């Protein structure tokens, strides 16, 4: 995804983190949706809950960076924590959508840690 045509300073310098957040948002929403279609949805409840929380954190972090919010660093720190928890939860499951989500969460957590430093 090339966001360069949309981002202006100060958001342009956060492009890698914004892109990681948006990718993670999509991965989490997709994972939650796929989990809801699993045969044993109850078994996936923690994954779904964590996916939805992570998607919200990623959206909030991306918006904070795009807006150049003074809270962007703090929000990204929280987002990194939530992404790490989501990656841990998704990694417990064998489904491909969970594995892809865990990978996206790890990448997002890494970018958000850089941003919040």
Give me the secondary-structure topology:
Blueprint: H1 15-36, H2 45-67, H3 72-91, H4 96-116
Overview of the molecule:
It is a single chain. The protein is mainly alpha-helical and 117 residues long. It has one domain: Substrate Binding Domain Of Dnak, Chain:A, Domain 2 (Up-down Bundle). The protein contains 4 helices and no strands. Helix 1 runs antiparallel to helix 2 and helix 2 runs parallel beside helix 4.
Rounded average pLDDT: 92
Write the H/E string, N to C.
Answer: HHHH
Shape summary: elongated
CATH architecture verdict: Up-down Bundle
Query: What is the number of E strands?
Result: 0
Please, how many domains? 1
Q: How much helix, percentage-wise, in residues?
A: over 70%
Count of alpha and pi helical runs: 4
- Would you tell me the structural class of the helices and strands? mainly alpha
What characterizes the major β-sheet? none
> In CATH, what is the class?
Mainly Alpha
Q: Tell me the radius of gyration.
A: 14 Å
In terms of per-residue confidence, which ranges show pLDDT below 50 for 5 or more consecutive residues?
none
Estimate what percentage of residues fall within beta strands.
under 5%
CATH topology: Substrate Binding Domain Of Dnak, Chain:A, Domain 2
The separation of the N and C termini measures 25 Å
């Amino acid at each position: 995804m090339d966001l360069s045509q949309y981002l202006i300073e100060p958001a342009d310098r956060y492009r890698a983190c914004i892109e990681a957040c948006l990718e993670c948002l999509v991965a989490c929403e997709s994972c939650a949706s796929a989990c809801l279609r699993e045969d044993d949805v109850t078994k996936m409840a923690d994954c779904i809950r964590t996916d939805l929380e992570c998607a919200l954190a990623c959206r909030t972090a991306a918006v904070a960076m795009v807006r150049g919010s003074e809270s962007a660093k703090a929000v990204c720190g929280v987002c990194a924590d939530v992404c790490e928890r989501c990656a841990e939860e998704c990694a417990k499951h064998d489904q491909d959508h969970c594995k892809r989500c865990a990978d996206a969460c790890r990448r997002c957590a890494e970018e958000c840690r850089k941003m919040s430093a």
